[in-house]
Design goal:
The structure is a single chain. Helix 3 packs antiparallel against helix 5 and helix 6 packs antiparallel against helix 9. The protein has one domain (3-257). By secondary structure, it is mainly α. The protein has helices at residues 3-27, 29-55, 58-91, 93-98, 106-132, 140-168, 172-188, 201-209, 211-225, 230-257. The protein has ten helices and no strands.
């Protein structure tokens, strides 16, 4: 088999596996909730419950909470990658894949590429909900698109970490519990829902040590200026670094399991 044919088969196998994982998301209510129901519920609940207390009214609170919910949703959607991989390993479906004439890496690659579409749906849902509540960023449509792309990329880069967790964990329950703990810790100990200056000194230090704080700050800057700021470039580099470090580790763990 020549190189071009091998690449073509890898692409088709990966696309097939990605489609399979998307179907699993659609037919699994828990996975579907991560990308559709959760961002809508959190945006409405946090916006109308805390908007008046934190910013005086919901409209003034939306520039704070929309980027926060967007990134929280990216974390939640990305964490689903590890759970799905672990479930497939536990069910033995990966053993069946090994008997098929497909690329060895296609099941893993299909999962990670399916995550891009899941993250895209989650980002659109988050931003559309904020817009329906009256959020109007100064950057206009261009800033919304750029911020969404940055959020999706960061979410996809984090998917590699959760995929590695899924490959190393003993069962799907462990992956889900650990992923939920990571998501809640990173999102709530940041500037996602409140200004950091309102926190105590100790909590401010913790929030500034949280990388998600800088991701949210970068997205807020894009939405207010319509341009890629210095913080946004740092966040982009951060995402690339995650992929460079964790992609080989995830492939290694995948080969060890298969």
């Amino acid at each position: 088999m020549d190189l071009q044919t091998h690449r073509g088969n890898l692409f088709m196998n990966t696309a097939t596996m990605a489609f399979r994982n998307l179907l699993k998301t659609i037919h699994n209510p828990d996975r579907f909730m991560d990308v559709i129901i959760q961002p809508i519920m959190f945006m409405l609940m946090f916006g109308y419950l805390f908007g008046g207390a934190i910013s005086g009214n919901v409209k003034n609170y939306l520039p704070i909470i929309v980027p926060g919910i967007l990134i929280q949703t990216m974390l939640s959607a990305a964490s689903g990658s590890g759970s799905q991989i672990r479930e497939d390993l536990d069910s033995g479906v990966f053993d069946r894949f090994k008997s098929l004439p497909i690329s060895h890496i296609a099941p893993l690659a299909g999962q990670l590429f399916a995550d891009v579409l899941r993250l895209t749906v989650a980002a659109i849902t988050s931003l559309a909900t904020g817009y329906a509540m009256g959020w109007r960023p100064a950057s206009g449509l261009g800033g919304i698109v750029v911020s969404a792309l940055l959020a999706i990329f960061i979410g996809w880069s984090l998917s590699w970490i959760f995929a590695l967790l899924g490959l190393l964990a003993k069962n799907a329950t462990t992956v889900e519990s650990f992923s939920l703990m990571i998501m809640l810790t990173l999102s709530f100990l940041s500037n996602a829902f409140i200004p950091i200056k309102t926190l105590s000194k100790t909590m401010q230090v913790i929030a500034y040590m949280n990388p998600i704080t800088y991701v949210i700050t970068a997205i807020r800057q894009i939405l207010s200026t319509g341009r890629l700021t210095y913080d946004a470039l740092l966040v982009l580099i951060f995402g690339v670094a995650i992929v460079i470090v964790f992609a080989p580790l995830t492939v290694w763990a995948y080969n060890r399991n298969n």
